[in-house]
Amino acid sequence: MDLSKYKIILFDADNTLFDFSRAEREALSDTLRASGIEPTEERIEAYIAINDRLWKRLERGEIEKDALREERFRELCEVFSFSASVSKLAGDYVEFLSRKAYLLEGAEEICRSLAEKYRLYIVTNGIKTVQERRFSACELKPFFEDLFISEELGFEKPHRSYFDAVAARISDFSPEHALIVGDSLTSDMRGGVNYGIDTCWYNPNGVENKQKLPITYQIRALGDLIPLLLA
């Protein structure tokens, strides 16, 4: 592989640079408590499963993001027969999540090193208010030239229209000189493959590539980007 061809790195945000799993659990616990509901492990796991399923539907264009925000809590309330306000749960969750800008271990140092050689950008399907607030509050901001949020662009990863919008805002962008790094097969890797961008799958748990996507690189630790891209 000719690593010297890369000029631009597109980073996914959640569970690639940000510790979204931690933020999600804490934000959900805060949200449930604010409505007088005990955040048990069973309830948290149920929400995570519901939310993951709905985000997959969002990627396939089967649900709108505004609907997703409340639908996940409507389903959670139905499962456990909660009488809490769905709109309050949805609003509280977005507010609590936006306050939790936890980075994965080594993310700041890795981005600082890569920014000396590459142009870095964030590409995310997250909620605009949440991602902007978290990004502004973390230590990564100086290393990135721009933040591309699907809600702002009007399209979700992995759709080509999302990457068309990203390409239009990056000067001198060409797919052959870009690399996308992310943890999701269905949004990051699928999006890169569809658009002709080389892919680097951050797969810390060694999950099987059941979709058989032709991924360019696979790493188990975020720090593996340093020997890969700065060799």
Question: What report would you give on this structure?
Answer:
By secondary structure, this protein is of the alpha/beta class. It folds into two domains: 3-18 and 103-229, HAD superfamily/HAD-like (Rossmann fold), CATH 3.40.50; 21-98, Putative phosphatase, domain 2 (DNA polymerase, domain 1, Orthogonal Bundle). Helices cover 48% and strands 12% of the residues. It contains ten helices and six strands; from the N terminus they run βαααααβαβααβαββα. It has helices spanning 20-34, 41-59, 65-80, 86-98, 107-114, 128-137, 150-153, 160-169, 185-195, 225-229; strands spanning 8-11, 119-124, 146-149, 178-182, 198-202, 217-219. It has a six-stranded parallel sheet, with helices on both faces. The chain is globular, with a radius of gyration of 18 Å.
Compact description:
The chain is α/β, with parallel strands linked by helices and 231 residues long. Helix content is 48%, strand content 12%.
Low-confidence stretches: none
Tally the structural domains. 2
Proportion of residues in β-strands: 5-15%
Topology as H/E string?
Answer: EHHHHHEHEHHEHEEH
Average pLDDT score: 95
CATH homologous superfamily designation of the largest domain = HAD superfamily/HAD-like
CATH class of the largest domain: Alpha Beta
Q: Quick one: overall form?
A: globular
CATH architecture of the largest domain: 3-Layer(aba) Sandwich
How many H/I helical runs? 10
Biggest sheet: strand arrangement: 3-2-1-4-5-6
Structural class per helix/strand content? alpha/beta
Q: Termini distance?
A: 12 Å
The number of E-state strands comes to 6
Give the helix proportion (percent range). 40-55%
| Rg from alpha-carbon coordinates | 18 Å
**Largest β sheet strand count, sense and barrel closure:** 6 strands, parallel
- Please name the CATH topology of the largest domain: Rossmann fold
